[in-house]
Prior knowledge:
Blueprint: H1 4-16, H2 23-26, H3 28-38, H4 44-57, H5 59-64, E1 66-69, E2 72-75, H6 76-89, H7 95-111, H8 120-134, H9 141-156, H10 158-167, H11 171-180, H12 188-200, H13 211-214, H14 217-253, H15 269-282, H16 287-291, H17 316-330, H18 332-341, H19 344-366
Antiparallel strand pairs: 1-2
Helix pairs in contact: 1-4, 3-6, 4-7, 6-7, 6-8, 7-9, 8-9, 9-10, 9-12, 12-14, 12-17, 14-19, 17-18, 17-19
Amino acid sequence: LEYMEFALDTLTFITYFPLKISEQLWEAFPLLYKAFDGWAFDYLMLMTPPINNLISKDPQHFLTATAAFPEGNAKYVDMVFSIVSKTVNEDRSSESEQRKALSLYLSVLHNCTGQVDSYLPTINDVVLAKLGQQVNAETPMTRHSIFQVLGSALYYNPQLELAELEKRGCTQQVMTQWMKDVDSMEKWLTKKMTVLGLLSVLRLPASSLPQSVVSMIPNVISTAVSLSIKMKEELEAGHKDDDDGAIEAEADDDDDWGGYDEDQDVTNPDDEAYMTALNKLSQGGDIANFLLGDGWDGLDEDDDEDFHSPLDNVDEMHFVNDILKEAYKREPDVYQQIQGALPAETVSSCQQIFASVDAQRQQAGGH
């Protein structure tokens, strides 16, 4: 156990950078599961990143590969589902460990499009049971992770996911709680999967939707539109902060500097930071994070910035634009009525999104 953390950090590193995972490296997958299932349950936080890397680098191999155990052969995908289920249902696992385990569902749903339909019932069994325990929780972080999964499932296949919710008679309750929680959402991934997930319902004909969902369409549109606008504003504010920092740095460079005094040591902030990192590394620091250039002030166990998937390439504003326009084109009479039920602010925001996306695409086409 002394070297387990270093081994997992190294595995994260060597599965992150290669474009293709070698057969030898894939052999680590069943070893991770065997360790988790036997004696390394407490290392789940460090196991999840390399597993996510392996799934994203070669989804087909992940879906088809099996490993031999004394009790019989097991598929890699079943190992992942076992890890999530055991973690979420284990009393001794922390909430942060459970949230980290749920991110494995995201990896499967985002990377294995159209190939894991049969696993949707299991996903819903686990996350909806957990949601029932979290409805009145003061801290909404675990609920938000659950909504990430449900949003991913709706984006994956809205028809199948709605059928799962309807089968359990909880569609309206889930969506009501989901939209109620929007104001407390801070993480980008939670917001993104809320926009993509809720609006994916509109990919289905209104006539095929449960009546409870049809009645919620105006609220779904208002929630997704306002959230996507908020995300755009946050992104632009972030870029502005970066630009301001760059301008300030340039201004500092212009200041007159007379050099070092005779009795003053010659120092360089970058060199000092590098040496500090090296010292921490020699004291048992995290080699993977050092090599990846991460900070040393401690890792945020709930940080989703290190989660990457094909959905990173889906622009929320473009998605909102396309879904709403396609729905209106498909069922103009229905969505004319829905538009009449929308607040004036939402209608104005929709027009803003349409104009912005059209301008972006026109500009991109001009180049």
